[in-house]
């Protein structure tokens, strides 16, 4: 996640403020927001190394993964225009 935030900061040209919410806090927010409740079971993606690898997709379907920098730039461009 730190690497992802670093790439976003590079694209924006300024620091990004982040905040951590643990399982207890997300569970509490989940009483009011179903999305927060669902995040509790996905916390392993944020607390342990999480490697995204597109090699299976490339082998199976002949597609190439979009570089993270490109995805971040396109997402931020979209957000700025909306």
Tell me what you see in this structure.
With 82 residues, the protein is mainly alpha-helical. The chain contains six helices and no strands. The chain has helices spanning 2-12, 23-29, 34-40, 44-47, 55-61, 68-81.
Write a concise synopsis of the structure shown.
With 82 residues, this protein is mainly α.
Determine the number of helices (DSSP H or I, runs of at least 4 residues): 6
Main β-sheet, in a few words?
Answer: none
Number of strands: 0
Task: Give the helix proportion (percent range).
Answer: 55-70%
Strand content: under 5%
Q: Which overall shape is indicated by the principal axes computed on the Cα atoms?
A: extended
Q: What is the rounded distance between the termini?
A: 25 Å
Order of helices and strands: HHHHHH
Structural class: mainly alpha
Average pLDDT, all residues? 91
From the alpha carbons, calculate the radius of gyration and give it in angstroms.
Answer: 16 Å
In the predicted model, the low-confidence regions spanning at least 5 consecutive residues are none
Task: Describe the protein's topology.
Blueprint (H helix, E strand, L loop, with lengths): L1 H11 L10 H7 L4 H7 L3 H4 L7 H7 L6 H14 L1
What attributes characterize this protein structure?
82 residues, mainly alpha, extended
